[in-house]
Design a protein that fits this description.
This protein is an alpha+beta fold and 416 residues long. The chain is built from 12 helices and 5 strands. A 5-stranded mixed sheet has the order 1-2-3-5-4, with helices on one face. The radius of gyration is 53 Å and the shape is rod-shaped. The two termini are 65 Å apart.
Length: 416
């Protein structure tokens, strides 16, 4: 039940309760006039003060509408109603039904410092009624009056204390509810911000995925079409300077084979499949074939070696190592002018290592120019491929002393 729901019965009693109790008092006093010994003076006083009480209650209702809560006017009206109730109770004890209203309205109409005195005055009126009416006759009735007054004040103090505690509890509860509402509002704002942040992160992740896929496709195109076209150009250049028809035909056949190979690679790259070499063979066989064809094409003495226990690798690992090997061989063909080249695939427990060494001209790794639109992906492309599967790539080279490229990636076995 809310605080407003609790206050509704109290508001209704403060508005209509005094009228009802005044009516009950008039009826009870009229019916008990002879039994209580109500004389003519008491009847006259009642006839005068009951209408005065009606007028008072009307004025009080008007004042409360204009000025709710404790006020000086409220104090005056409370005191006047107490005086009317006291006199009416003197005339007939049953007018105490009206005088008891002071218990319920003291906290509403009086300032905090006057609540207890107002309750005390009401208790005096009620105690006189409870001993049979005013004034007490004889010592016994006076002692009884003070005893009843003490009991009434004790009960008033207890109930007042309970009422204050309940009011304090209601205030604390209202503050707690307000704090909870503010906390809930802050939580809702945080949830809204988190939802917006989550949506932003999804967009960023989607953009990052698109960018990564573009890089992957660019690298695939470079490793397939670009390298194939480079090989075809090299073969056609040989044809242009061939001394006889047999030599020219041999190199033309190699150019055609490279064209068919590049076309197959391009189609498979578009469908995001493994390289052509891995379609029918494992990584060692694909590397052996690639090295042999490269050596035959370039005229460089090329050797391939496998060390360790051969494992069936996950297709992504195999494709990455094969692409790194192809890029390294392509770089060696264009730049190294080597006479010997060696490629070693090593299975080392939880890692796979790919090492390519040549005895070519070498270079200064720190002085490698930035890749341009006309150039290949080179070392940056190989390094990006290795890092994509949590691997590393290192390059050791020195002008005049050849080049060594080493890629180390986790050994992830094929689950199939």
């Amino acid at each position: 039940m809310t605080n407003t729901a609790r206050q509704q019965p109290r508001v209704s009693f403060n508005r209509w309760g005094p009228w009802a109790l005044l009516g009950v008092s008039v009826v009870a006093a009229a019916m008990s006039a002879r039994a209580t010994g109500m004389d003519r003076t008491g009847a006259v006083v009642s006839v005068v003060l009951v209408p005065a009480a009606v007028v008072l209650q009307g004025c009080w209702a008007w004042v409360r509408r204009r000025q709710p809560g404790p006020s000086r006017t409220g104090v005056c009206l409370y005191a006047l109603r107490w005086a009317i109730g006291f006199v009416l109770t003197w005339a007939n004890p049953f007018f105490a039904f009206y005088a008891v209203t002071g218990y319920y309205t003291a906290g509403l109409d009086l300032p905090r410092r006057l609540v207890l005195p107002g309750l005390f005055l009401t208790a005096v009126t009620m105690s006189g009624s409870e001993i049979g009416g005013w004034p007490p006759h004889g010592l016994v009735l006076w002692l009884g009056f003070f005893l009843v007054l003490a009991v009434n004040m004790g009960m008033v103090s207890v109930f007042t204390r309970y009422a204050q505690q309940e009011q304090e509890h209601a205030v604390v509860q209202a503050d707690t509810i307000g704090e909870l509402e503010r906390t809930n509002a802050a939580l809702q704002r945080a949830l809204d911000e988190n939802a917006a942040l989550h949506a932003q992160l999804l967009v960023q992740a989607r953009e990052a995925g698109v960018a990564d896929e573009r890089r992957r496709l660019a690298a695939e195109i470079h490793d397939t079409i670009a390298q194939g076209l480079t090989g075809i150009i090299a073969q056609l250049q040989v044809v242009a300077g061939a001394p006889d028809l047999t030599t020219a035909r041999t190199h033309l056949e190699r150019a055609a084979a490279l064209a068919r190979h590049s076309l197959g690679e391009a189609r498979r790259s578009v469908h995001n499949l493994a390289p052509v070499e891995l379609a029918a063979a494992g990584l060692p066989d694909a590397l052996r074939k690639t090295v042999a064809e490269w050596g035959e094409r370039t005229g460089v003495r090329a050797e391939f070696t496998v060390t360790g226990t051969v494992e069936t690798l996950h297709e992504e690992v195999s494709a990455t190592l094969l692409r790194i090997a192809q890029e390294a061989l392509s770089n060696a063909a264009r730049h190294a002018r080597a006479s010997r080249l060696g490629l070693t695939l090593s299975f080392m427990g939880d890692e796979v290592s790919l090492d390519i060494r040549d005895d070519g001209t070498g270079f200064d790794p720190a002085a490698v120019p930035v890749r341009t639109r006309a150039g290949g992906f080179g070392l940056d492309g190989m390094r990006a491929r290795a890092e994509r599967i949590a691997g590393t790539l290192t390059v050791e080279s020195e002008p005049g002393h050849g080049t060594a490229v080493s890629a180390r990636v986790p050994l992830v076995r094929d689950d199939q």
